[in-house]
Amino acid sequence: MNTKQAQELQEALDAIRRRTINNIYFVACGGSKAIFEPVQYICDVESEKPSAVYTSNEFNYRQPKALGETSLVITCSHSGNTPETIDATKKAREAGALTICLSFKPESELWLAAEYGISYTWGPDSKPSQTNSPMLFRLVFGLLNILKPNEKYDRAMMELELLDDVVARNKAATLPAAKAYGIAYKREPLIYTMSSGECYGVAYSFAICLLMEMLWINSQSIHSGEYFHGPFEITDYDVPFIIILNSGKTRFLDERALDFARKFSDRVEVIDTASFDMHEISEDLRGYLAPLIAGVVLRQYADALAYHRGHPLSVRRYMWQMPY
Amino acid sequence: MNTKQAQELQEALDAIRRRTINNIYFVACGGSKAIFEPVQYICDVESEKPSAVYTSNEFNYRQPKALGETSLVITCSHSGNTPETIDATKKAREAGALTICLSFKPESELWLAAEYGISYTWGPDSKPSQTNSPMLFRLVFGLLNILKPNEKYDRAMMELELLDDVVARNKAATLPAAKAYGIAYKREPLIYTMSSGECYGVAYSFAICLLMEMLWINSQSIHSGEYFHGPFEITDYDVPFIIILNSGKTRFLDERALDFARKFSDRVEVIDTASFDMHEISEDLRGYLAPLIAGVVLRQYADALAYHRGHPLSVRRYMWQMPY
């Protein structure tokens, strides 16, 4: 992270240190909500403090009763102008919760609504280690280290600084497969994604943001544990699935879904996070950090689909075109 | 409920009364998991105790750290033979949690794994008030009444006894619309569902069980708060949506999604739970109980689709046909 980010993170963690935190809410919309799934997983596995992910307006209108002065509410909005997320941050702050936001745009309305802000960089020239998810991971490992210190969290912080090389190497290694995918799947009207555990959020984000929003391809991110309890009956020789295999505790769920899907569909693509070269990262942290690599790897698949469909990822028919 | 159910419920509630409950886990798969969503919503709104819904194997492999002797774990499996849910119940019981299961089949493996069991009836001849969701609602209102007594929960218990008439009346009132839907949408290869709040679970269940599993129609249950943050770009004049409007606190989310979808799609069907005749139910409880009506109303839509597609809801190509 850069100096500014390090300072913002330090201030946010100092604020956490001064408070009693009894529960954690992660609140955002769409792609920003999706990045919360892996850290909620990590919190759930590492800590006894309850944590939950909400889409912003569900949080705003549902008004969870446990929200209060011992709550930590982490919000995120790319441009810092998502009305629901600004509203959630204000409501949480009014309820006495500690509010920390992440945004690409400091001084945005979201930034001003939260007590603390952590900025991230974005775009083709930015360093992967300084983008939204890695900054969020640092915040969460820092939080866990305050709740119950463990050398593992310090290690995670250090290893997140090595992320740029890990990302570059794994992007390069998977580029040929992504390019081939773009050609082979360019005419598909529907592609399902599937995962669980740390990478479920990546499957969700790819389905609703990359496929549906940016490519107008129908989709659903099926939880690989739920696959056998309904969705699997849709499987047929020509139904495409992208399955992200976790390397962590829930790998069995993904492998079971993959084994079945492969038996009955000829259109199954696998992103195996265990095959990523993450040698700089300690073995016990690779499962946790895998979604950070899976996300950028999958972006290449979307780029290839966009290229071969002649439909740039920047095209929108409603967003940026009209009020809604 | 019948005498046996009343006794089972009493025993389960007595067990809760004897324990300290610090957190609540709802664990099941597919359709049985879906019925947990509305009660988790109710817990979230009514109580400060943390509660969460997990698909069984995510729970088993993730192993949430807060699971322990002050946990209440409620599981459900229709025939009581879902291996993941049996496993979850055993794991929870081993961890010292209080375990209560719901099943159509007492003496099933799930039933034997849990400390307490609540049975429900099923099939065309059973009374709606004695089926899975209403029994679960009674358990949860009973739990809330123990955690923090409120006359509202007693009222809810009494009014659940009046459910058979409410269901019959609203089924009859919506049957013509359901029949017309079956004809108009019989050739659709994909139908999206959308909702939030109490009825999100109904939208989820209809998408993965009725449409995908039983009718082999592609689907996704889009959260109406998430719709504007990705999925809405898929909207076009010929993309079908079924939108369930809540009558509770999140109605605004559903109405906003409906207003937008209607502008750009000619294929939007609305199930407005505020239009249900629920006059026996107190006004402050109608939102909570609406999913119990929405579920059976939507079943008629599935029946009509099945009839006009010549594809009975009982047809399966994988389930019951092979091990997986």
Q: Can you identify the CATH superfamily of the largest domain in chain A?
A: Glucose-6-phosphate isomerase like protein, domain 1
Oligomer: homodimer
Number of helices of chain A: 12
Major beta sheet summary of chain A: 5 strands, parallel
* Tally of discrete structural domains of chain A: 2
Rg on CA atoms of chain A, Å: 19 Å
Give the SSE map.
The structure is a homodimer of 324-residue chains.
Chain A lengths: L2 H15 L5 E6 L1 H5 L1 H11 L4 E5 H7 L8 E7 L5 H12 L3 E6 L5 H5 L2 E4 L12 H16 L3 H10 L2 H22 L7 E4 L4 H16 L5 E3 L17 E5 L5 H14 L3 E5 L10 H27 L15
Parallel strand pairs in A: 1-2, 1-3, 3-4, 4-5, 6-7, 6-8, 8-9
Helix pairs in contact in A: 1-7, 3-7, 4-5, 7-8, 9-12, 10-12
Quick recap:
Chain A has 324 residues and is α/β, with parallel strands linked by helices. Chain A has twelve helices and nine strands.
Please supply descriptive tags for the structure shown above.
alpha/beta, 49% helix, 9 strands, 4-stranded parallel β-sheet, 324 residues, homodimer, 2 domains, Rossmann fold, globular
Describe this structure in words.
The structure is a homodimer of 324-residue chains. Chain A folds into two domains: 3-159, Rossmann fold (3-Layer(aba) Sandwich); 173-309, Rossmann fold. In chain A, strands 2-1-3-4-5 form a five-stranded parallel beta sheet, sandwiched between helices. Chain A is globular and about 55 Å long. In chain A, helix 3 packs parallel to helix 7 (132-147) and helix 10 (200-215) packs parallel to helix 12 (283-309). The longest helix of chain A has 27 residues, at 283-309. With 324 residues, the first copy, chain A, is of the alpha/beta class. In chain A, strand 8 (241-245), helix 11 (251-264) and strand 9 form a beta-alpha-beta unit. Chain A has helices at residues 3-17, 30-34, 36-46, 56-62, 83-94, 109-113, 132-147, 151-160, 163-184, 200-215, 251-264, 283-309, and strands at 23-28, 51-55, 71-77, 98-103, 116-119, 192-195, 221-223, 241-245, 268-272. Helices cover 49% and strands 14% of the residues of chain A. At the A-B interface, helix 2, helix 3, helix 4, helix 10 and helix 11 of A face helix 2, helix 3, helix 4, helix 10 and helix 11 of B.
